[in-house]
């Protein structure tokens, strides 16, 4: 028997841990039930931190922990999924093809930044969506002092006033002052088509965010979107032109394209609709988790968001349930009633909310300390000690106040 997990992000990592845990509990040898994790690199990219400087440091190697729990790492990129034959075709790092059969499959392929066909976006836009793109942005920022001191050199436009856009924008003044010098006067502008900043966060957190933007000098252009990009700036839908040599696109994400190969229903974000066990209905042997899945968190209508907070716990349930089916033991319905947000606001601190209604419970330095703990401790892989690593992915484990394991 073999379980194949596609993806080494937060959901894929915890799916592997949880699957190995249940296999261990039932005394099944790895030779009897192989767990294989497929990804281009045996590395977890700490994606929630890619808005920070030095993004090349924001990774965690997984080989030690995978070896400790007897999970087989398969280096390569999953190219095709044949759900009828139950095989995955993989393109290896050497450019060859490899076919991997499965008894159960977990699709944990994550999400990608949504890039509409806006003139100039592909040529002139930056992002913090992937490690390579975050590194490219960081190198670009570091090179700005070498450029002619034209009016747009010190200006950064961030397109998207949601979670990622706000974190990227509020981090930017300090990053630019470090690059240009403390006396520099950088200009940072958030552009969003909605009439208010942070449209998905609700009324309670918004005054805190608005005050932080004022404190940092971050401008907003609301009710407009970027119509085109040039090397020297952007033109908005209302006709305004902003001279800027740095434009960061942070306007929405979609499930990774591989989900489209699973013949099942998807939502507007491309996520596979799953049942409470995280199975893909109508497709035998296939589970989906993390950003690849639209999953109900509770019985009152809340659904998992595309975030590492939900991906870690969803991964633990998907791994457990896929192995449970292979071993013929009961599954555990996914549930995640607790929900928090912790939004970094740069030098203005942070914002911590609890509940789906996002009630503000911490702001400023206290929230910043919690955010730093989440970013540097909570979301990193467990140590490569077998018992502790397996225990970290127990789906019955109660989450703490941060909403993480």
From TrEMBL:
Homology family: Belongs to the NADH dehydrogenase family.
Protein name: Pyridine nucleotide-disulfide oxidoreductase
UniProt-listed InterPro entries: FAD/NAD-bd_sf, FAD/NAD-binding_dom, NDH-2
Source superkingdom: Bacteria
Keyword Protease: no
Keyword field: FAD, Flavoprotein, NAD, Oxidoreductase
PANTHER family reported for this sequence: NADH DEHYDROGENASE, NADH DEHYDROGENASE-LIKE PROTEIN RV1812C
Domain (FAD/NAD(P)-binding): residue spans on this chain: 2-315
């Amino acid at each position: 028997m073999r379980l194949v997990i596609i993806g080494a992000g937060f959901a894929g990592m915890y799916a592997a841990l949880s699957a190995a845990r249940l296999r261990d509990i039932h005394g099944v040898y790895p030779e009897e039930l192989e767990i294989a994790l497929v990804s281009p690199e045996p590395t977890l990219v700490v994606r929630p931190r890619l808005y920070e400087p030095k993004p090349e440091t924001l990774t965690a190697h997984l080989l030690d922990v995978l070896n400790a729990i007897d999970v087989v790492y398969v280096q390569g990129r999953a190219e095709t999924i044949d759900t009828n034959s139950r095989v995955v075709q993989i393109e290896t790092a050497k450019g060859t093809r490899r076919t991997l059969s499965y008894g159960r499959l977990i699709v944990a392929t994550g999400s990608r930044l949504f890039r509409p066909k806006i003139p100039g976006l592909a040529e002139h836009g930056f992002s913090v969506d992937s490690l390579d793109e975050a590194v490219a942005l960081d190198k670009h920022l570091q090179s700005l002092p070498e450029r002619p001191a034209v009016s747009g050199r010190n200006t950064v436009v961030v397109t998207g006033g949601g979670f990622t856009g706000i974190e990227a924008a509020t981090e930017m003044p300090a990053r630019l002052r470090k690059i240009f010098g403390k006396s520099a006067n950088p200009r940072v502008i958030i552009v969003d088509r909605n009439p208010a900043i942070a449209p998905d966060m609700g009324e309670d957190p918004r005054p805190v965010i608005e005050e932080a933007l004022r404190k940092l000098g971050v401008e907003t252009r609301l009710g407009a979107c970027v119509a085109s990009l040039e090397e020297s700036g952007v033109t908005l839908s209302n006709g305004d032109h902003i001279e800027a040599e740095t434009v960061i696109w942070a306007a929405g994400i979609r499930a990774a394209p591989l989900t489209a190969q699973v013949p099942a229903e998807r939502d507007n974000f491309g996520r596979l609709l799953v049942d409470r066990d995280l199975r893909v209905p109508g497709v035998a042997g296939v589970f989906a988790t993390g950003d690849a899945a639209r999953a109900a968190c509770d019985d009152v209508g809340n659904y998992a968001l595309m975030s590492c907070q939900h991906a870690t716990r969803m991964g633990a349930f998907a791994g457990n349930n896929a192995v449970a089916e292979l071993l013929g033991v009961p599954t555990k319905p996914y549930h995640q009633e607790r929900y928090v947000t912790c939004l970094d606001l740069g030098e203005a601190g942070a914002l911590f909310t609890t509940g789906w209604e996002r009630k503000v419970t911490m702001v400023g330095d206290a929230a910043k300390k919690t955010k730093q703990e989440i970013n540097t401790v909570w979301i990193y892989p467990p140590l490569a000690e077998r018992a502790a690593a397996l225990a970290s992915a127990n789906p019955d484990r109660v989450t703490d106040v941060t909403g993480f394991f």
